[in-house]
């Protein structure tokens, strides 16, 4: 839904989604590390004294290619849910769908921002 920035700390507010009768509202703070024009690394770093039930870790990498730039992305998202362990397979299925939808929205927004669409 939005990203609020404070220097290299970014607070991500993602779209809510249902999981086994509850609503997950992933909001988390990431420390962003930039290598200008090459790479962005990020890891979960909630503000001191706060608890965030979701977080991410990963990177974006840019590589020059003929006619443009190749973007590679690695992302691991974690969410701490108050559900029994046996619900794991169902939660993983929901999370897979949520991540796929997030990736599709990210790509569409990036293409729109770059004027590709």
Top keywords for this entry?
two-stranded antiparallel ribbon, alpha+beta, 117 residues, 23% helix, 1 helix, six-stranded antiparallel sheet, globular
Please, could you describe this protein's structure?
- By secondary structure, the protein is of the alpha+beta class.
- The protein has one helix at residues 88-114; strands at residues 2-6, 9-13, 17-19, 22-24, 27-35, 39-44, 54-65, 68-79.
- The chain has a six-stranded antiparallel beta sheet with strand order 1-2-5-6-7-8, with no helix packed on it. A two-stranded antiparallel ribbon has the order 3-4.
- β3 and β4 (22-24) form a beta hairpin.
- The radius of gyration is 16 Å and the shape is globular.
Assembly type of the shown chains? single chain
Strand order of the largest sheet: 1-2-5-6-7-8
Discrete helix count: 1
The chain-level mean pLDDT equals 88
Specify Rg, calculated over alpha carbons. Answer: 16 Å
Low-confidence runs? none
What shape does the CA trace take? globular
The largest pleated sheet is described as: 6 strands, antiparallel
Order of helices and strands: EEEEEEEEH
> Beta-strand level of the residues, as a percent range?
over 45%
For the terminal residues, how far apart are their CA atoms? 20 Å
Number of strands: 8
Q: Helical percent range?
A: 10-25%
Structural class: alpha+beta
